[in-house]
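Researcher: Good morning. I'm working through a list of sequences from a screen, and I'd like to move beyond sequence-only analysis. For each chain I'm collecting a predicted structure so we can compare shapes side by side. This is the next one on the list. No need for commentary yet; just the structure.
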Amino acid sequence: MAEGNLIELIKELRERTGAGLMDCKGALLANDCDLDKASDYLREKGLAKAAKKASRIAAEGLAIAKKCEKCGSVVVLEVNCETDFVAKGDAFRALVENVADVILEKRPANVEEAKELTSELFADATVKMGEKFDLRRFVVFDSKDAAYVASYIHMGGKIAVAVALDKEDAELGKGLAMHIAANNPQYLSLNDVAAEDVNHEKEVQLEAAKNDPKLAGKPAEMLSKIIDAKVTKYYSEMVLGSQAFLMDDSKTVAQVLKEKGVNVLKFVRYQVGEGIEKRKDDFASEVMNEVNK
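Model: Good morning. Structure tokens for this chain:
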């Protein structure tokens, strides 16, 4: 084949896949300059690279909330990558947006099903960007289950929030979404706190009471009430309704909701990388590993 024709094919394959020049050339030569086969070859190669990266940690990424313009439903999701540099790029943001579109359209029942539906998107992204990617979690707020769903994205995708209301109120919805992003409530109400968590906190407070000289000698019944009050106070700080409202800290969220005649049905707050232990790189060891290969 003429050199000029090969160069054109390399250019086209690179535009199609985003892979490097030498990778494109090698893929074409290995597949008789067939663009489709070369493209599949690169994708397969990308998948092989991804498998080698399985032990690497994807703790960066984006959390977004996206609304379906047709049905009005909202999806909140977190997709992880390995580096902040990739997380800030347009290609990665496009991947996250496309994954959100698939979830809104196909409505997978869980993350495993969603990963199957988006496997091709992630395979192509691995070829183009060369990192490990992971769809970590998502939740869909169906428009049929709420009168209004407000969303908010903080710091360009570090935190994403959606909150469902039983009454349409755009201003209140936005304020609540921003409040949730800032104050990170863990529960909608005290009733949502698991019994085992309450019992654990009672044990903690009981041990603390034993070491508090002010509580020494208190009757058992009184001590029990004091401990119950401490447990309630502890969890109230994590309950949305009990928190001072971000937009007017003279009132609690519960007071504002009562004044507006609105109820919060549910909310979700995703912060990128929360709960993931980030990799600690040893650059010297990494260099020596490359030298000794």
